[in-house]
Specification:
Blueprint (H helix, E strand, L loop, with lengths): L6 H15 L5 H8 L6 H16 L1 H10 L10 H14 L5 H8 L6 H15 L12 H7 L2 H5 L9 E5 L5 H8 L8 E4 L16 E3 L2 H8 L8 E5 L5 H8 L3 E6 L2 H14 L4 E4 L11 E7 L14 H4 L2 H20 L1 E11 L8 H10 L3 E2 L19 E3 L13 E7 L2
Parallel strand pairs: 4-5, 4-7, 5-6, 7-8
Antiparallel strand pairs: 1-2, 1-3, 8-11, 9-11, 10-11
Helix pairs in contact: 1-2, 1-3, 3-5, 4-5, 5-6, 5-7, 11-12
């Protein structure tokens, strides 16, 4: 019997969800294997969309499922995952219920198929709906506190695409050419789903893709004026290119050969100059000290939850503790490589206090560096520094304009 059109995408989506929820993989890690047998580009995109929306609204989808079952279906049971997918398609992707049934029930067999059909049909007859904003998982709410309610409105939709314009003076010109919206100097935002490789200026290296929040750490180092900067953990290169475009002589350090190759390709496309170095930052020793160091440290990346909703369900106290230990080791080494008067910017794309505010307090107390407060005039739009002179962004900020990733950023000078 011929399989229903679209079942390959649903099977791939189920594999993605299984990898994230049972094995703790990232969506990025899981994608090559899960989509290996999917040939059609539209099916690949659909599989990613189903998995992404399921993860984005998982808590609310589970609440609907539980409202329609007498006995709770176990979290790791295949029927629950398939039901989550079915509801995500019907309620978020506007897939007709008959198409959902035709393409998802074949993923189950026997009794589970009847269970899924019955629960889904019951909820459709009730005209079930999702809340206006996603409900975050309880353990996330416990960690983020009041910030969780502020973050949630920024997670309703996947993000649009931010472009970092190579020459800030050309921002208005590229905004007009690309038909996007500019929220800051050197920034243009275009609609999600845009094929960036086909946009004007891509081949010429006039811009690169970089979230608005990710543009801020390098901007806080100011103009380079041919001074020496180290971009620690540099690949895939967005911050390296930003520093080079702003007049810094950049050493770009990263351990991953694959990611450094991407950085080199980006430098070649944009015509910007930097010195890529493949090395472990915990073992490497520089030949000279630096006027500025940008440490965009490895982290749990929970601040990227609007584009990577898997982090809402994978990250826990163990991963956070591991990152905190690594971050402190990197900061200690970076502090030793600064010239007197040199500036360190520490950044993480994390919403965890342990990786952000608590790390900054530790640096203040332990490393003998002088805090350099972030000023309102250095920031775009309605963004404001904290009372401590740090910067905290999250997806709920600028939500009416498409939001931005969650970052913590702070700055110090070596006496």
């Amino acid at each position: 019997m011929a399989q229903p059109t679209g079942i390959h995408a649903r099977r791939a989506a189920l594999k993605l969800l299984d990898a994230v929820l049972r094995r703790g993989e990232t969506l990025e890690q899981a994608t090559p294997g899960a989509l290996r047998d999917v040939r059609d580009a539209n099916d690949k995109a659909l599989a990613r969309a189903i998995a992404g929306e399921t993860l984005r609204w998982l808590t609310d989808l589970d609440a609907l499922i539980d409202s329609a079952t007498k006995q709770r279906v176990p979290d790791d049971a295949k029927p629950r995952t398939v039901l989550r997918m079915m509801l995500a398609q019907a309620l978020r992707l506007e897939t007709p219920p008959h198409a959902v049934i035709a393409t998802c029930l074949p993923l189950l067999a026997g009794g589970p198929r009847r269970l899924a059909h019955g629960v889904f049909s019951t909820l459709m007859k009730r005209e079930a709906t999702l809340p206006e904003v996603p409900t975050l998982p309880e353990r996330v709410r416990e960690r983020w506190g009041d910030m969780a309610d502020a973050v949630a409105p920024g997670l309703v939709l996947p993000p649009e695409v931010d472009l970092h314009i190579k020459h800030a003076a050309d921002t208005a010109q590229w905004q007009a050419k690309l038909g996007g919206e500019s929220l800051a100097s050197a920034h243009v935002r275009v609609p999600r789903g845009t094929a960036v490789e086909k946009l004007e200026g891509y081949a010429d290296g006039a811009w690169w893709v970089q979230d608005l929040a990710a543009m801020l750490p390098s901007a806080l180092l100011g103009a380079g004026e041919e001074r020496n900067a180290l971009d620690l953990c540099a690949a895939p290169g967005g911050k390296t290119m930003a520093l080079a475009a702003n007049g810094w002589k950049v050493t770009a350090l990263d351990l991953s050969k694959r990611r450094l190759d991407v950085l080199k390709d980006n430098l070649k496309r944009t015509g910007l100059k930097a010195s890529p170095v493949r090395a472990d930052a915990l073992e490497w020793e520089p030949k000279h000290h630096f006027d500025a160091i940008l440490l965009d440290a490895p982290c749990t990346a929970t601040g990227t939850c609007r584009r990577h909703p898997d982090v809402l369900h994978r990250i826990g106290t163990r991963q956070i503790a591991e990152m905190v230990e690594l971050q402190r080791a990197l900061v200690e080494r970076a502090a030793g490589w600064l010239k007197p008067g040199g500036v360190l910017v520490y950044a993480v794309c994390s919403l965890e206090r342990q990786e952000g505010e608590e790390q900054a307090a530790w640096i203040d107390a332990e490393l003998g560096l002088e805090p350099v407060a972030v000023e309102s005039g250095e920031l775009p739009g309605d963004l404001e520094p904290t009372s401590q002179g740090w910067l905290r962004t999250h997806p709920g900020m600028l939500a009416d304009k498409g939001g931005l990733d969650g970052f913590f950023i702070a700055r110090w000078r070596k006496p």
